[in-house]
Design a protein that fits this description.
Blueprint lengths: L7 H7 L3 H13 L4 H8 L3 H13 L3 E6 L5 E5 L9
Antiparallel strand pairs: 1-2
Helix pairs in contact: 3-4
Length: 86
């Protein structure tokens, strides 16, 4: 069954939920984003987005790209030089 759906092994490997997949998809589409940006794109409450981001960081899929002078983090997908995510 895993071979019928491209990328399904990635989902199983990281035990991703539907909401986590939605956030990863937005990162792929939009690039670097803040929690506020993610909330707008996914129509999800900030508290929920924060929990999802922290979970994805613990799984090693998301990293902090930048931190501005006000302490706002910009996140990005963690990947290799070829753009492959782990």
């Amino acid at each position: 069954m895993n071979q019928l759906i491209p990328g399904f092994d990635f989902v199983l490997k990281h035990s991703l939920t539907r909401k986590e997949l939605l956030v990863i998809y937005e990162f792929i589409e939009q690039g670097k984003m803040t929690l506020l940006d993610l909330g707008k794109f996914t129509n999800t409450k900030p508290k929920t987005i924060h929990k999802i981001i922290m979970t994805l960081r613990l799984k090693g899929l998301i990293e902090i790209a930048e931190k501005d002078s006000k302490g706002v983090h910009t996140y990005q997908i963690k990947g290799d030089r070829n753009g492959n995510i782990y």
